[in-house]
Specification:
The chain has 17 helices and seven strands. With about 425 residues, it is an alpha/beta fold.
């Protein structure tokens, strides 16, 4: 009984605040900006984010390597770019979404036999006050209708999608089902070593030269929405709406770059600045999984596995240290001993980072002892590796035991 009374009082207070907001807020700026009613205290607008996005004609199977969640056969028209602005940045049951943007790719024509042009159509939904959340959520769920939708987000897997699911449950609505491709994780592999951080804004500016001058930081979104509830002033809130729209346009730009890299990595190096070594190692790793428990569909695609080998060799030829080490080990396993050792010698060069030198010297020592039956050479490699380890390294014991065993073989005290 007490619980029902509290609920009724809460609804009355919320309705009074909603009526006050409706009376004091000047909604003409929203109307002028293309916003229209989409439910109780919920507005909607549709804008063209950008035109002339060039993409490969089909999403390649390799897209799953670049952007987890993407697979061959996914149509561009089934992609749903997604971003939320919320009342808090830490999640939790008390955090709600008040602004959402969805982006869809509309085919605008063909650019050639291998590429096509698209335009990005962005739909935004804005919640004007708490009592409208039910209609707001219902409007958002309408965007998920249709089979085969793949949601594309940036850090949305750990935040935006969780907020959406929580608010659906709080409003007694079943959360939508979809495949999810979160671009944050491949972005880290492609640009982490090239930029101060891997925030979406940093990548947009540092890699693609996108100008977001005048953009209101997303961190200010909660305060701006709460201020709107109190004052009804629309200007700052419209600025956050523009920030939200730009996020979707930037997300589409990052996605486009990733698809170009996945489609033709070698030519992409001429147009897009990305960490080719990290990318090559990842491609090789995922297409050459060893062991029954680690195989995936990429291992069964001969085109992808062959590309992985080419990428790894090319990265090694570009003097990428980790690629040199990995390629040398691959050749040794393939019994191409002479060339494999040559690449390991390169990885062990004094100009390479110490951890890689240690790994290369260790591999050379093991090969010298087991295959070449040359314990003296194995001892020399192992001693060099030990000298490179810091005094507090947990690996020193391993090398010291190996040195002791080799000395016994050679009758060295």
């Amino acid at each position: 009984m007490a619980g029902n009374l509290r609920d009724r009082l809460k609804r009355i207070q919320q309705n009074e605040r909603a009526e006050k907001t409706a009376q004091t807020a000047d909604l003409s700026p929203f109307t002028a900006g293309g916003w229209a009613a989409a439910g109780h205290l919920t507005l909607r607008r549709e804008v063209i984010g950008c035109e002339g996005i060039e993409l490969p004609q089909t999403v390649p199977g390799a897209a799953g390597i670049v952007a987890p969640g993407m697979r061959g056969g996914t149509a561009y028209e089934d992609l749903l770019f997604f971003d939320l602005e919320t009342t808090g940045l830490s999640g939790g049951a008390g955090t709600i979404a008040f602004l959402a943007a969805f982006g869809r790719l509309d085919r605008a024509g063909g650019a050639g036999p291998k590429t096509a042009f698209f335009k990005l159509r962005i739909t935004q939904y804005l919640l004007l006050d708490y009592p409208g959340e039910s209609d707001f959520i219902e409007a958002l769920l309408g965007e998920f209708k249709g089979a085969g939708i793949t949601l594309v987000s940036y850090n949305g897997r750990s935040f935006d999608s969780q907020i959406l699911a929580t608010r659906c449950l709080m409003n007694r609505v079943v959360p939508p089902e979809y495949r999810h491709a979160d671009l944050l994780y491949p972005a880290r592999r492609l640009w982490k070593r090239l930029l101060p951080d891997c925030s979406q804004a940093t990548i947009e500016t540092g890699i693609f030269g996108i100008d977001r001058t005048g953009d209101i930081p997303g961190a200010m979104a909660p305060d701006i929405w709460f201020s709107f509830l109190k004052s009804g002033e629309a200007g700052p809130l419209l600025g956050i709406c523009e920030h939200n729209r730009r996020d979707i346009a930037g997300l589409a730009a990052i996605f486009s770059a990733m698809m170009r890299i996945a489609h033709d990595p070698f030519s992409a190096t001429q147009k897009i600045n990305f960490d080719f070594e990290n990318f090559s190692l990842r491609w090789y790793e995922i297409t050459h999984c060893r062991g029954k428990n680690y195989r995936n569909e990429f291992c069964e695609d001969p085109h992808l596995t062959d590309m992985g080998e080419k990428l790894l060799r090319y990265a090694a030829e570009m003097a990428c240290p980790r690629a040199e080490l990995r390629y040398g080990l691959v050749l040794l396993r393939a019994k191409n001993y002479d060339e494999g050792r040559e690449w390991l010698y390169r990885a062990a060069d004094k100009s390479r980072p110490s951890p890689l030198r240690v790994a290369a010297l260790r591999a050379l020592g093991i090969d010298s002892e087991r295959r070449m039956k040359n314990p003296a050479e194995a001892l020399a490699f192992t001693e060099q590796a030990l000298a490179l380890l810091p005094p507090d390294s947990s690996r020193r014991e391993e090398f010291e035991r190996r040195i002791q065993r080799l000395r016994l073989k050679l009758n060295i005290k």
